[in-house]
TrEMBL record:
<feature type="compositionally biased region" description="Basic residues">
    <location>
        <begin position="209"/>
        <end position="218"/>
    </location>
</feature>
<dbReference type="InterPro" id="IPR027309">
    <property type="entry name" value="P2X_extracellular_dom_sf"/>
</dbReference>
<comment type="similarity">
    <text>Belongs to the P2X receptor family.</text>
</comment>
<feature type="region of interest" description="Disordered">
    <location>
        <begin position="189"/>
        <end position="234"/>
    </location>
</feature>
<dbReference type="InterPro" id="IPR059116">
    <property type="entry name" value="P2X_receptor"/>
</dbReference>
<keyword id="KW-0472">Membrane</keyword>
<keyword id="KW-0812">Transmembrane</keyword>
<feature type="transmembrane region" description="Helical">
    <location>
        <begin position="152"/>
        <end position="174"/>
    </location>
</feature>
<protein>
    <submittedName>
        <fullName>Uncharacterized protein</fullName>
    </submittedName>
</protein>
<keyword id="KW-0813">Transport</keyword>
<keyword id="KW-0407">Ion channel</keyword>
<dbReference type="Pfam" id="PF00864">
    <property type="entry name" value="P2X_receptor"/>
</dbReference>
<keyword id="KW-0406">Ion transport</keyword>
<keyword id="KW-1071">Ligand-gated ion channel</keyword>
<feature type="compositionally biased region" description="Basic and acidic residues">
    <location>
        <begin position="189"/>
        <end position="208"/>
    </location>
</feature>
<keyword id="KW-1133">Transmembrane helix</keyword>
Amino acid sequence: MFKSSVRFPELNKKVIYSNLDEQKPLKYPAKRANQYTISDILSLLPKGDKAFSTQMGAVIQVSNTWQCDVGQACAPFLSVRRADFFTPSFNPTNYEQLVNTKSQQILGYTQSSYRLINSSRRLVFEGTGFKFLIQTKGVGRSFQLDAAVLQLSLGVALLKLAVIAVDFLMLNVFPKRAIYAKEKYVQSEDFSHLEERKQEEHEREERRRARKERKKMQRRQEEAGSQEGDEDYF
């Protein structure tokens, strides 16, 4: 019979979940089962793991798992996995290869012993089987108002709704809202004519440049005319 207890003191120090007081065996697959045969446990393994386990044995981790909403009724269930291999490259495609090479250092569970018969002979006993590692684990969940408010406030802050809400309260609800409104809005000089001024300055600058260019052209023409007069004289 699988019996265990678990508590979540961070969520509720008074609540303890337990089936230690159950005296009547409840066979799997009944609800709240506490009695399992080896075949039942192996049936909870993946199909490939189960087939290979019967050939070479296995180390199997059996977890009596509680997943509870703290404060409400909760019953455990078994979660089963192989514990005699931990390499990510291990997959069902190399089962046959491991059987042929008898790589029991990687997986399986084998017990060996021997007895000396005489100085040149000994009798070896080798057997495979199942080794179960039993543990209890649990996950507790509970609604916490303060944590929910904290998460909500953080979310609102990220959405910039807090600024909008505070501004609305300061302008419409608080007693000194008139002072806040006066300080919030500051009357400034009218700068609507700045663009017109910039345009006028630009036009004046263009006219100045045009005048300079015309003067340069006139000078060049005058210099060219004077040079022609000198040539005619000589």
